[in-house]
Every structure is written in C-alpha cells, then in structure tokens.
Amino acid sequence: MDKHLIEINIPEKFRAINMAKIFLDGITVVAGINGCGKSTLSKLLYQTYKYSINYNRLLVLDIRDQLQPYYEVLNQLYSLLINYTRQNAMYISRRWRKITSLDKADSYIKDVKDLCQNFLEVERHLSQNGESLMTERTWRIILASIGSEENRDLEANLDMLLTQMTDIVKHAIALSQERPSSLLYNKVKTNLRSQLPLSVEVSEFGDSFIGPQTKAVALPHYIQRVLYLDTPMMLGLNTFDGPENWDELNDCLRRSSTHGYEGIVKDTIQKEILHGEAFYDEESIEDIINFKRDDGKIFDLLDCATGVKSFSILQLLLKNGFLRKDTLLIVDEPEAHLHPQWIVEYARIILLLHKEFGVKFFIASHSTDMVGALKEIAPTVGVTDLNFYVAEDAGDMLYNYKELGDDVEPIFASFNKSYEKLDYYVSNGSKS
After folding, report:
1. Is there a single domain that holds both residue 72 and residue 109?
2. Residues 375, 264 share a domain
3. DSSP H helical segments within 320-357, as ranges?
4. How do strand 27-31 and strand 360-365 relate by DSSP bridges?
5. Is residue 118 part of a domain?
6. Cα–Cα distance measured from residue 416 to residue 394, given in angstroms and rounded to the nearest whole number
7. Last residue of a domain, one of 178, 199, 219
8. On the CB side of 406, how many CA atoms lie within 13 Å of its CA?
9. How far apart are CA 86 and CA 364, in angstroms?
10. In sequence order, what are the beta bridge partners of 365?
11. Are 162 and 112 in contact (CB under 8 A)?
C-alpha cells in the first residue's frame, strides 16, 4: 500500500468527526460547513507535529510541573540570600529561574547545588552568633516540598531536595531517548481539551507519532517546522495566556531577515498585491512590525487592514527563511477577512509557495472562491499534488470526510445549500 507524507486517520467519533482518513503530500484542502470538524483536524495536526519536532520541549513542560514544589523551596532560599546580601532589588529577580532546556540540565542542577551550598555556608556563619536566615514558614515549605518528616537538619533536607530534583531530571533525559508516545498523546489530548480516541493516528510515511500501536514517537524528517494560522488578527499581539500558536507566530515574524528574498512570490506579494513591504526593525525599542507603502508612508501593521496582515504574515515568513520544503503551514479559513479578489490572490500565493519553495499546506476552508481558485490556478503554475476533501453529513451532527482528489464538484454542491436556503426564505417570505 502506498504511504503518504502525512496521514491522519480518525476511524471513530471524535468531536464532530465521525470518520476521516486524510492524506497530505503537497497541498491538502478540507472543506465543509461550520462545525464539521475542520479546525479539529488542523489543531490535531499542529499539536502532533509541534511536539514531535520538539519532543524535549514536551519533556521540559512535564518536568516543570514535577519540579514546581522544589521551585518554591529554591525561591525561598534565593530570596533570603538576596535580602541578606542586600543586593539591589531593582536589578535582581527575587525568584529562582526554572529549567528551560534538557541540553542544559547538568548546568542547571549544578546551579541548584551551588545555591544550596551558599545558603548552608551563610546559615552556618550566622548560627555561630545565634542568628538564622531560616523562618518557621521556610521550614514548613521545605518539609512539605520534599516529603520529609519533622527533621530540621538543614543540610540533610537540602541534600534530599537536590537528590529528588536530580532524579526527575535524569528520568526526563532518559525519556528523551525513548520518546514514549503516551506523553505526546496526553499533551495533545490536554491541548485539544477533548477526549482523544486511542485509535486516532498521525504518521509520516507510515511511521507514527501517535496511534493505537505506537510505543515511541517517530523522529520527524520531512517536516521540521510547523505553524498554525487561525486568524491574521493575532499578528503583532502580545498575549497573556493566549493560544500558543499566536505567540509562536509572532516570534517567527520577528526573526532576522538574513535569507535571500528574491523570486516570483516576493514580487507578486510586494508589487502586485500589497504595493508595499512589512518589516521588523530589531533596533527599535518599540518592538513593533511596520508596513511601508510604495509611497514611502510607514504604518504600524496592527493598524492595517486584516487583508494586509494576512499577506504580510506570508511575506515576513518568506523574508526570514521560515518557509522551506520542510515547512508545514496549517491555515484555518484563509479566506476570512479577505475581499473575493484577494481570496484568489491568496490561493495563488499558496500554490506559488509550494511550487517555488516546497512548502506543504493543510488548508481548512468553506469558501467556493478559495476552493475554485486553488483548483483552477494549480495547473497553470505546475502544481499537481493538490488534494481535496469534503465533510459529508453522517447524521447526529457528525461528519465523514470524503477524499475527492482534484474533483471539487461535491464541494460546490455542498456549498450550494446556501442558495437553497436563500430561495426558500425568498419564496416563503413571512410564512417562514
């Protein structure tokens, strides 16, 4: 049986999806009405690749949760030391930093050990004069965090803290080699905020990341970077506890534009569509993304039209080299906020990015203009690996995804229901 670059297999009910088997080899488009599960497919694909590509990030997030009680102890020790040495609070954080990378785990544990030793030395010095940095509250935090009995031997308790933290980190390092799929499955399920059937499978050329028979997460090879674009309104926003894909996009847009930026796509976006160029000034203290029109006027991109934002995102990602043959761009309803003319232009840019740079696309759409433009323009630019799916009503608010190849007529037929609704209400008038 032929294997595909990416396969998503949902053989049983998951949210609004009754059944779906989706293949992606170049550009895949899933179409259907609102609430049929298109965004669910997009988020499932994004979450799976995001943490398969950076599995160690998944482990860091996991051990951060496990280390949280120990951070509380380290915060107390560190803050007491800072207060004792009377260092300026304006320049020194009162909180101990959290682990950020498994690659620097040994260095991090050494820093924890140094903190404990420094604290012990100060405490011993103070005890000679009958003084102490330790408070009853600090003792309670230490004993509760490490699960110790009422033993107030400070050195023994800090040794236990260091041993327990070291064991957690070493276990995570071992898992980084084993890459258990269960950890990825649980993270995807949590982020999707829904019960994820164990039968769901996502794979790359037959090697699975999650799936019923999957023990270890495969190492991604053909896809090395992924972004999920669900709205151009996220551009330039600094979010607090917002969707993770928003922060990831804005970080990507602020990367240095060090790559060559020439070619058909560059000219098409800059000269034919936007008549201007989005840019990020790294030296500016304002940390904003600007848009410079051909007439020389410069605007904060946050103040520009959403259509301009949509194309500027692609322009900036192209300028800084993010869009390559190993990039997967997941775009949810790219037609939103776009004038019909620009919907056609956006479809053309998708096809050109795939043709010229090899970028892979997963597109969720309910626009006849977008579907029609992709279908009709594809052969004119030499794109042949374009595949369409339509969500068909399976009853009980569930949908089956049917593979169409390059035949988009069933999509248009499903969208024609809007005209049927219009005719019904016009014909029945006030009787409705």
Report:
1. yes
2. no
3. 340-357
4. parallel
5. yes
6. 18
7. 178
8. 13
9. 57
10. 31
11. yes
Among residues 215, 205, 142, the alpha carbon closest in space to that of 184 is found at 215
Listing DSSP states for 47-75 in one string gives: HHHHHHHTHHHHHHHHHHHHHHHHHHHHH
In a domain, 397, yes or no: no
The residue range of the domain holding 291 is 232-325
Q: Which has more pLDDT, 72 or 1? A: 72
The pLDDT tens digits of the residues spanning 20-39 come to: 999 999 999 999 988 999 99
Which are the contacts of 363, defined by CB distance < 8 A and separation ≥ 6? 27, 28, 29, 30, 331, 334, 350, 370, 374
Q: Which residues on adjacent β-strands are paired with residue 29?
A: 363, 388
The Cβ of residue 131 has, within 10 Å, a number of other Cβ atoms equal to: 9
Examine the domain organization and report whether 155 and 168 are in the same domain. Answer: yes
CB 119 within 8 A of CB 80: yes
State the angle between helix axes of 55-85 and 105-127 in degrees (0 to 180), rounded to the nearest 10: 20
Q: According to DSSP H, which parts of 1-54 are helical? A: 38-53
- Domain end point (choices 282, 306, 325): 325
Instruction: Render pLDDT for 292-323 as a digit per residue (tens, 0 to 9).
Output: 999 999 999 989 999 999 999 999 999 989 99
Same domain, 79 and 104: yes
Q: Are residues 319 and 336 in the same domain?
A: no
Rounded to 10°, the helix 55-85/38-53 angle is 70
pLDDT digits (tens, 9 = 90+) for 375-397: 999 999 999 999 999 999 999 99
Total domain count, the chain: 3
Does the reported pTM lie above 0.70?
yes
Length of the chain: 432
**Domain at 369, CATH number:** 3.40.50
Query: What would the pLDDT profile of 333-368 be if each residue is shown by its tens digit?
Result: 999 889 999 999 999 999 999 999 999 999 999 899
Same domain (yes/no): 345, 248: no
